[in-house]
Design brief:
single chain, about 210 residues, alpha/beta, Rossmann fold, 9 strands, about 30% helix, globular
């Protein structure tokens, strides 16, 4: 089973529809981001353990989040929770050479591994930072898009502050029951749309779960 078959199914099931997302998913080699002993499952549409209690998201979830983010070439994007670096690579493919992905990871070993993989594959439009992602990365703010790959109790305030006016933020909210939300910043207002139940690791940090 290759990525092509997975994508055909995801299009049929309505997870992904835009050319940009389809192209990016086809281009990024997921097996490069998966631990050695799990490489045979690289193109099975399921989350996989990457160590330190973290996972690489299922392919449909990466695709869905990219669709909801409505990414365009040249955008500056903040990712909270680098993990394996796979999601960042897919986003980097979509925003292109003129775009930038700033990704924050709290576990140094994972950040280091992701950095190496991204560098090896030539994604020089991704910056991986070690830190508390719930505080964002003010140095390079504001961002056109922000997404969080772990579920928090609420949208961290610093992330709302670092989002451009008209920008969108995608993240799962909740502890036992989690829901994927899209927040759009319009002036001082935040408009929220909900996209159904999901299952993510908990967001740890000052503005996440302690």
């Amino acid at each position: 089973m290759g990525m092509k078959e997975v994508i055909e199914r995801l299009i049929k099931e309505g997870y992904i529809k835009s050319d940009r997302v389809i192209k990016a998913l086809l281009k990024v080699p997921r097996e490069e981001f998966v631990p050695e002993h799990l490489k045979k499952y690289a193109y099975v549409d399921t989350p996989l353990e990457i160590g330190y209690g973290q996972t690489i998201s299922a392919i449909h979830m990466v695709g869905l989040m990219c669709e909801l983010l409505d990414l365009k070439p040249g955008m500056k994007v903040l990712e909270v929770g680098t993990g394996s670096g796979y999601h960042a690579a897919v986003v980097a493919e979509i925003v292109g050479k003129d775009g930038l992905v700033v990704s924050i990871e709290r576990i140094p070993e994972l950040a280091e591994r992701a950095k190496k993989t991204l560098k090896k594959l030539g994604y020089d439009n991704v910056i991986v930072v070690v830190g508390d992602g719930t505080l964002g990365y003010p140095e390079l703010a504001p961002y056109d898009r922000i997404y969080v790959t772990a579920a928090g109790p609420k949208i961290p305030k610093p992330l709302i502050e670092q989002l451009k006016n008209g920008g969108k933020l995608v993240m799962p909210i909740g502890k036992y029951f989690q829901e994927l939300i899209v927040a759009e910043k319009i002036g001082d207002e935040i408009k929220i749309k909900k996209y159904g139940p999901v299952s993510f690791v908990p967001l740890i940090g000052k503005e996440g779960f302690q």
